[in-house]
Design a protein that fits this description.
Homotrimer. Keywords: Acetylation, Fatty acid metabolism, Isomerase, Lipid metabolism, Mitochondrion, Transit peptide. It is found in: Mitochondrion matrix. It is built from ten helices and seven strands. The strands form two sheets. A four-stranded parallel sheet has the order 1-2-4-7, sandwiched between helices. A three-stranded mixed sheet has the order 3-5-6. Strand 1, helix 2 and strand 2 form a beta-alpha-beta unit. Bound molecules: ligand LP6JUW53. Ligand LP6JUW53 binds next to helix 9 and helix 10.
Amino acid sequence: MNRPPVNSLNTEHLEQLHRALVRLENEKCRGMILSSSSPTVFSAGLDIREMYKPELEKARKFWRTLQDMWLKLYSTPYPTVAAIHGHAPAGGCLLALSCEYRVIVPNVKIGLNETQLGIVAPQWFQDCMRNVIGERQAEKALIAGHMFNTEQALQVGLVDEVAADKAACIARAEAFLASQANLPLLARKTVKLGFRNSTLSRLMTGREADTKIFIEYIFQPKVQKGIELYLQSLSKKSG
Ligand SMILES: CC/C=C\CC/C=C/CC(=O)SCCNC(=O)CCNC(=O)[C@H](O)C(C)(C)COP(=O)(O)OP(=O)(O)OC[C@H]1O[C@@H](n2cnc3c(N)ncnc32)[C@H](O)[C@@H]1OP(=O)(O)O
């Protein structure tokens, strides 16, 4: 990902990611490392400005583009690994959770923090967390909007390994891909999709309902006020 300053996911960036995933699949890619050009941020999650006073059709397109990208990422036939050498809140955490393996560096925060912003992590975000860390830990983390530090993320199983820095993180991600290289492709892909099928189907069969929930939620005046205040706090921080 290379959308400075924080790889926030707007419609255009989500489309780019989706196109890249389609291309990799068409080119029979043997593995992907999802990484960031930023030295300190993996991805800041959804671009909050897309949810602030949006036009209805633009908001619908934004959400459908996110769904398209995630359905592709979560179901890739090739192995995927997230090299998390920077913070990964909310949608950034979703990207990492959607890969098959996660390597993180020290001093990083990762988690689905939506509750803290007065928004709700959609069901499929929640499913991704539950599938990785289990029901009890996911419920606790999601209700609190907890951001895990590196040690906590490793302890709870949210990530698989800690590496010292970006270079080591990429090297460990490559080692994971190498460990998969000799597995029969069809068997590997079939088992992966078997595990992920119910999570994927839940969104595929409920896409329109999921979009409706998003739209109705974000268009509420009190939610818009919360988003406005959050945007102000973010820009005050950097100003
Ligand atoms: C029922 C369903 C309803 C709704 C579901 C909606 C689901 C939403 C999921 C999401 O992903 S919401 C997004 C949540 N993301 C966050 O809370 C992250 C916020 N950002 C940060 O915590 C920090 O920026 C950072 C830790 C990622 C990086 O910190 P740092 O390196 O110190 O950068 P700055 O904070 O100074 O930010 C630089 C610049 O970027 C802007 N920005 C940051 N995050 C976002 C974002 N998510 N969207 C848009 N813009 C963002 C920030 O305002 C600064 O902009 P300036 O113009 O002031 O420089």
